[in-house]
Write a structure and sequence with these properties.
Layout: E1 10-13, E2 17-20, E3 30-34, H1 47-76, H2 85-104
Antiparallel strand pairs: 1-2, 2-3
Helix pairs in contact: 1-2
Length: about 110
């Protein structure tokens, strides 16, 4: 599959920098990316939007493994002879709720 991404968890520092806490290269973490803005440029997002983008990127990346895990659990289940359609739907809804909780966590 190629090169793997930097391990999570990631965090936002200085408003728009994205770093990890996984490797002891620096006490401040390893810089992964920056979501920089420039107010009034018309080309870059505003500083506030750049900070929101950095937060969104970190939240999505940190939740990725839990989302994939929840989807794999749902995928491997089937209605079968011992499940009613209502039970299967309740199962899917519960795992979807768990996945959403992972995404919406701060």
């Amino acid at each position: 599959m190629g090169t793997k991404h930097t391990p999570t968890p990631w965090r936002v520092t200085d408003g728009t920098n994205i770093k990890d806490d996984c490797r002891p290269i620096s006490e401040h973490g390893v810089l992964i990316a920056g979501a920089h803005g420039y107010n009034g440029s018309g080309f870059f997002p505003s500083d506030e939007e750049a900070a929101a983008n950095a937060t969104f990127i970190v939240r999505a990346c940190n939740a990725h493994e839990e989302l994939v895990k929840a989807l794999r659990v749902i995928k491997t289940q089937s209605i079968g002879d011992d499940w009613t359609a209502e039970q299967a739907m309740a199962f899917v809804k519960q795992h979807a709720a768990d996945a959403l909780a992972a995404v919406e966590a701060p």
